[in-house]
């Protein structure tokens, strides 16, 4: 069932060489029982639904590869881990909180979209550019209530930011939020 292994309700991908394909949810892997951890070079092999997604380690790199990845809990990059979203069809849908504290994302978030329902935090433990979108990449904040946005460094930024929070507020709680392209508030407010 794929080229990863299950440990403590986590499906772990950590192949030493090459690029691992993370099979789509139709492969009946136990993603819905726990989380996915990417510790090597990997790419989505179809639509994926999981409770949590972490990209970490010294070689963690996960390409959405034109697919949709649904995360019903937390998403995080750490160590040197990076997310790759370079195809317009790339979609990362995060129902929980998103933490970008991994490697340098410069040139890796250039197309597609990330939708975040929870809070978004950018930290700089390993890189001041741990969230640096460009090109046509979009981030959509779509929670209800208050969504907190915290940026540790000015090197990280959104390219396009859409606030679509009926009755909600996207509140900047730390740092400055930089938008390199378009800022649009459809519903809710940005404070």
Descriptive tags:
15-stranded mixed sheet; four-stranded parallel sheet; 0% helix; single chain; 191 residues; mainly beta
Approximately how much helix is present in the residues? Answer: under 10%
Number of strands: 19
Question: Which runs of at least 5 residues are low in confidence (pLDDT < 50)?
Answer: none
- How widely separated are the two ends? 46 Å
Radius of gyration: 16 Å
Quick rundown:
Helix content is 0%, strand content 46%.
Characterize the structure shown.
- A hairpin with a 2-residue loop joins strand 1 and strand 2 (10-13).
- This protein has 191 residues and is an all-beta fold.
- The mean pLDDT is 87.
- The protein starts with a strand and ends with a strand.
- It has no helices and 19 strands.
List the helices and strands and how they pair.
Blueprint (H helix, E strand, L loop, with lengths): L4 E3 L2 E4 L6 E4 L11 E4 L2 E5 L2 E3 L1 E4 L5 E3 L4 E4 L3 E3 L4 E3 L6 E4 L3 E3 L12 E4 L3 E3 L15 E4 L4 E6 L8 E15 L8 E8 L1
Parallel strand pairs: 2-4, 3-5, 4-7, 5-8, 6-9, 7-10, 8-11, 9-12, 10-13, 12-14, 13-15, 14-16, 15-17, 16-18, 17-18, 18-19
Antiparallel strand pairs: 1-2
